[in-house]
Amino acid sequence: MKIQIAPSILSADFARLADALASIESSADLVHLDVMDGHFVPNITIGAPVIAALRKVTNLPFDCHLMISEPQKFIPAFLDAGANMISVHAESDRHLHRALALIRDGGAKAGVAINPATPTESLADVIAYCDFILVMSVNPGFGGQKFIRPVIEKVRRVRELLERNGLGIPIEIDGGIDATTAGEVVAAGASILVAGNAVFGSGVPAANIEKIRQAAVVLN
Asked: How far apart are CA 4 and CA 11, in angstroms?
């Protein structure tokens, strides 16, 4: 499966988000947009109006990660804002089938995200309704956190679960991804790599993306 790099603008300069997108336009595969509400996670970031504004300045697909309570109330707004992919957390919505259907009916790809401590088995009854699975390799809420290594084994279990069900959908991984962890998570089964600080923390974002991409290929 093709490896895709999805830079997270959570680690970019919020005063220059348009410039941040321009710096990755030719090198990234997706843009990861972390939406936090200060309730489901202990941080507040951006919402649909900001995403709608950013949609006007880039052609990159938007991967919206909803770390919010009651996501179904807000999914239509993110669809209208231009989201191409939307993930909701298994821990935040008791009616995941309904949420996934709402996303798909709106024309976007639907995914379920799980936190590091959430059992892989929680996905069993919803994976048939997903276009991708998002595995968190840090506890959500803040960028720049340390990679939780046991999640590598969780990625393998998710891949095995998908294979048992005859599904070839991609596994996305988010948290602590850089050139040192990329190869390991790809080897375990991940194919969409979200990287924030490793892309925007220092240096040239496009060159940083290439380093992660090369590491994923070489070490896989």
From this structure: 18
Contact predicate 216/193, CB 8 Å:
yes
What's the rounded mean pLDDT across residues 125-142?
A: 93
> 188 near 220, Cβ under 8 Å?
no
CB atoms under 10 Å from CB of 165, counted, come to 12
Q: Report the C-alpha gap between 42 and 113 in whole angstroms.
A: 17
Q: CATH class for domain 4-219?
A: alpha beta
Give me 184's structure tokens. Answer: 């390991």
* DSSP H or E run through 89: strand 85-89
User: With contact defined as beta carbons under 8 Å apart, do 93 and 71 qualify?
Assistant: yes
- Rg of the chain over Cα atoms, rounded to whole angstroms, equals 16
Q: Identify the CA nearest to 123 among candidates 85, 84, 165.
A: 165
Q: For residue 33, give the 3-state DSSP assignment.
A: strand
Q: Would you list the domain boundaries of the chain?
A: 4-219
Spatial distance between the Cα atoms of 168 and 203, rounded to a whole number of angstroms: 35
Catalytic machinery residues: 34, 174
Q: Tell me: the pLDDT tens digits for 89-128?
A: 999 988 999 999 999 999 999 999 999 999 999 999 999 9
